Amino acid sequence: MPYLGAGAHIIIAIFFAIHAVRTGQNNYWLFILLAFPFLGSVVYFFAIFLPSSRLQRHARQLASSAVKALDPTREVREAQAAYDYSPTAQHEIRLAQAQLAVGNAQQSLRHFEAAMKGPFAADQDIRWGAAQAAYHAGEPRTALQYLKTIAQTDVHYRAEPVGLLIAKSYAMLGDQEMARKSFDFVREQSGGFDVIAEYAIWAAEQGDWATANRLKADADKAMTHWSGQQRLLNKEMLHRLKAAVAKQGK
After folding, report:
1. Which residue ranges run through the membrane (predicted)?
2. What parts of the chain have a pLDDT lower than 50?
3. Which of 3, 81, 127, 157 holds its CA 20 to 30 A away from the CA of 111?
């Protein structure tokens, strides 16, 4: 039995050593893990593995969501105060992001566009923020202008969310042919859950039940190995998807 315990310690240490190599950790972790398998594994788990794990990321996301639920305008107030005190481009960007997070899309767009007139004129993150703000403000043409500039400047920048927002912007604009082509393109390129779900919702809204049902089946398959936390984080999307598909036959 002692040999089994020692063997388990070594296996765990080797697992963490492989993780250290793959994630580019300092070489001294290999020495610690191999020289002190049990203690080294415990230290590595809490110092490196847990902070970078999905569980930890989900926990941080849930904590952030809880804070926002309790005081949703806190960041807006703090960002506005910082901007009023010192109206720099950085503070304006922070304010724009805070406004977007609470649904003040029109104000957010105004601040993003103002920030792009200065040293951040070519910043992709600012363009992306402006595109999101424009879409949520009901200005799909403006959103498409920013999104196309992003795609032309760097095709790899946030490829999935940019492609998805392009498709949704065309749909809002009423150009359903381009919306379908855009959905097909981003589906082929990435195929993440958000893409599948949004495409299915759009297809249901168009009465294309064959496409909607096929994509719903793909979404159900993707959720097979989801944790409860993942379902909680995607609760709104799952509700929208279920509601869209439920309209079939009505």
Report:
1. 30-50
2. 1-6, 55, 63
3. 157
pLDDT digits (tens, 9 = 90+) for 180-230: 999 999 999 887 899 999 999 999 999 999 999 999 999 998 888 888 778
Which pair of structure tokens corresponds to residue 27?
Answer: 């070489």
CA–chain centroid gap for 181, Å, is 23
φ/ψ (deg, to 5) at 141: -65, -45
Amino acid at residue number 148: K
The residue count for the chain: 250
